[in-house]
Design a protein that fits this description.
The structure holds two protein chains of two kinds. By secondary structure, chain A is an alpha+beta fold. Chain A contains twelve helices and 17 strands. Chain A has a seven-stranded mixed β-sheet, sandwiched between helices. In chain A, strands 8, 9, 10, 12, 13 and 15 form a six-stranded antiparallel β-sheet that branches. In chain A, strands 14-11-16-17 form a four-stranded antiparallel β-sheet, with no helix packed on it. Helix content of chain B is 22%, strand content 20%. Classes of the chains: A alpha+beta, B alpha+beta. Chains A and B meet through loops of A and loops of B.
Chain lengths: 437, 631
Amino acid sequence: VKRAALALALAVLAGSAQSAQQASPQTAPPDRRVDLDFLRYYTAEQLQVALQSLATAYPELVSLESIGTSRGGRELWVATLTSREGREPARKSAMLIAGSLSERDPHGAEMALFTLFELAQNHARDPQVAEALGACTLYFAPSLDPDARARLLEPPASSPEPARSVAIDRNFPAGWSPWDNGIGGAYPLSEPESRALSDFLTAHQNVALVQTYSISMNEAKAAEASVGPAPDQALHDSVLERAAAELEEPAFLRSASGDALRGGSLLAHVVLERGALGFLSVVPGRVEGRLPQVQELFALARRASSHTLLLARSLPRLAIGEASVTRLRSELWQVDVEVQNRGLVATAGALAQARHLTLGPRLEISGAQVVATALAEPGSAELRPAARVSGALPLPEIPGGERVRVRLVVSAPAESQLTLVVSAPRAGAASGTAHLR
Amino acid sequence: VKPLGGALGALWTPDRKAWLAAALAVALPAGARQEPAETPAEAQQAAQEPPQGGTPQGGPPPVGQTQDPPAPAEPAVVETPPADPPPALPELEPPSYHGLDQVADLVARFARAVPQAAHVLELAGGVGGRPLPALEFGRPGPVPLAERPTVLLVGGLDGESLCGAEAVLACARKLLEAPDRLPSDVAFVAVPWGAPEELARALGAAPASNPSERPYDEDGDGASDEDPPDDLDGDGLVLCMLLEDSAGPWTFSRDERLLARAGPGDGPRFWLVPEGRDDDGDGRFNEDGPGGVVPDRNFPLGREAAWRDARCGSLPLCHPAARALADLALARRTAAVLLLEGNHGGLAAPGGAPGPGGIALPLEGDRRLYERATETFLALTQRRQNGMHTLSQARGRDMSGAALDWFYAGAGALALEIAPWGPTVEGGAEVIARDARYQDGGPLDRELRARPLASDLDRAWALWLDNTRGGLGFVDWHPVEIGGSQALVGGWEARTIQDPPLESLPRALAGIPEFALAVGSALPRLELRILEASRDGEVVHLRARVRNQGLMPTGLWGGRGPGSAGELSLELAVPPGAKLLAGEARVALGRLDGGEASAEIGWILLAPEDSTFRLRAQSELALPVEVEARP
């Protein structure tokens, strides 16, 4: 590991410095505290050193944890990228960037690593990055099948374990089949890698979106393998519309549908069973299991990182508007406030709502005795009485860019301060205050 | 030689007799034999005569032993009994429902009583960090139990069927009475309490209000187990509750105890919920009680609709007991799985939900096997059932995530659900003589006659209750105060429809051990015969044939999917210095039905004198067999 770290530290290639500057057109220099080279592939050992270097260099942004080990004993790393100021990472809307989990994305580790590096070094000078990292959490799992990568990248002597028949990206539960010649495993999540990732998603209910990579999208096969209209297609489409408007090459960002939702895949699990959104950064027309040329890596990584930033900016984000206070009696107050979703997509998709896959937004009120509550659905001006459950006011799901009007009748002495906290697992949390005067 | 999958019809009639005969002749003491109505003398004769080409005793030799053609296999080696006589097998009489501690104790005592044939297995997935009690047993012999084709018996995996647990105990005890008469080279693994925490609640050992080790958020409100059922009327029973609502789907049927789906104009209408308060104030009653995920529904197949039923769990095999049983089945050559649970009183084949790709289970190629198993079960238990039922047919509802479907299509085993208890079990094969008190022909007044009929199943239970229990066992609907309004509380008491009253338990278990034995006796058994091993100088000619001496095929279609070829193979190990001139070192033979023989397989080799040739046949479900030849 030390040798690899030294090699990595010394491997400051002119190309990397020049390229990274090209990636960020802002005039201020990037806050580069680590030099990483993206003109080569990373072995498992080198990837670990690179991730640790980033976590050490950007402690206010990056943390690193192992979520388990592969069948071959290699660590499964997840780097968390978010601004540590403000809310804790688990209380922010989040996305997962999952790399190198099948033969379709052997380059995924480099794509994820570059994106992590790029966002970390540009957090101070790029307002979009700063806003995204302030409001959202990005979990990077760059290499989810490190054993397969080892067989691909390392000489046989250093990866003696034989190839296994089970594909990690066919071992998730949605649409899993025992009749795929064993490629999906004896049962879903039978492999330590898929189980660790599924456990991670269960423990991180804030993940609203997952991005993966794919070097090959066979269009005919995709059409054949279609499992019907993807749930929450409208939400996916809204993100692609933004991509069409903002990205230079929007066609390379795709929503999870067709072949991407094939049985046992991570995206099928995320989209069909967890009701989250799924996207792929694709490189069409390649052969599965073949690595892109190293000369292509940097350009591919730049493109993938722009996808990640766009997706992060699309995540739902709750906010509380300014409160309007009206005195009804000496100690009885009417407080009107708007709860907004400042993201592009809804606080939860239709599938997640219908199947109770995530909790809806809840407004907690403290600092006064709540006498009555009412709210107007998004798009409606009509206030209707609404009951509180377990001390909090359940709110409807809020589409992207929409707001919910809430009216509270509270009892408290004048000059009291009312504290409002709205939260939803996949849309983060926000707080506001109202002075009763 | 028949083509693969063909000529099944010619086999089934003799097979059926053989299944029955195997059960009767092998396990039961001579004086205790019970002749099934449909298998007269030739059934016993069939049992004494091995299938065509079969070895007279013990089947093919295990891996590691050699067999010279065409000599029969060596008889099984019986271990020397210990110096001190073991304790007697514990009795299961008088009938009772055993708790988890008692089950663990019984399992241990079974193992101590027959140490040469049985020992305790410790599986993960128990409660309180304790293992799931399990017993592994089989006829003493040289092949370790863990390597043998296995019949897995699991009780009460649905977390409700205590009689399923008793059925597994009864099977273990009955089969261990004469371990030397068990089929050779077959192992049985008995797991009486497949769902320990859930069964403890069903038994009353864990009150409904107790916290669960595995809390689950059934109503998706972010809290777990916060709205359990309650005993509102203080009668010591937690039954059902009717909440009147014009949008409710239920109304009273002609039998005022039973409910029917409300049609237009029917009333009053109700919601049917468990008895209790709305503890979490969400307007729903008792929808989030202790626990929630049921192992029997926590398996990977047919989960497209699993989100509708919290019992399936958010992820497959997230229940430790389900995962432990899946791992157990995969770690062994599991050839058959009998799930003893449910209250339909019959035998159910896989098909709780559509299989992968929406294909109906069981697959067409396996249906005859399931039909034969159903007939054998009905004959041995003296029950009636109108042909083979799939799981969803037997249960009358979708069974997403059913264990039965995965043990069939995922583990490739002959998977059967056997419900020891059901409305017609005590009536046996006889038609119940009288109608229930409120049925047509009874004292119906005009108002009652205008009401809809309850389901056939409910009416069958009502008939059973009235005809055999004098109507005792159902608490009539009565009003209770709840939250300032009224609800009706009533329903079936414990030990009525879910599990039999204790006095009915022996009838519910009758014939099930014999059926378990019949399944074990029917497992595929490979015989490998060398038909020619000759030498002309250095040129060696070999010919061999594989035969399935069992009654089941060497692999099920369900184990590999529709269109699969099966995994029976014959391999020739070419010795050092030898060269294969003709023939393949590994020949895929697909799948052999019961009694079927493969085509002759031939090889020509160039080999020095004194060369030894080793042939090995193996398949999904049968014990591999190996022979040597020295031409």
